[in-house]
Structure prediction request, 105 residues.
Amino acid sequence: MQMRHLIIFAIVGIFGLLGFNIINSSQREKHREAITANSETELADSALSKNNDADASSAIASDTSGIASKPLGQQPKAILDNATAKIDQAQQADAARLKEMRSAQ
Prediction:
């Protein structure tokens, strides 16, 4: 291959990647808007329900909207923090049930 063919191939590749990034970023913005709109709908739905699970549903929906509103670089950390908090809550509830069972015996 001649040098000018390599340069032309590199320029075509750069423009191809640029076009891919433009298309991908616009789709990512559309998905982010859809996620935000979906989480707002979940918040409205959870506010209407008044059963025992309403508190948990609104907490999950508000966590989802909080994660979706963060920049992409911070979203994985927010997801891990959310999962860690839920695990801690589950362990505390499990420990409380175990304590109740031991006191009942």
Notes: The first helix runs from residue 3 to 48. Confidence is low (pLDDT under 50) at residues 50-58.
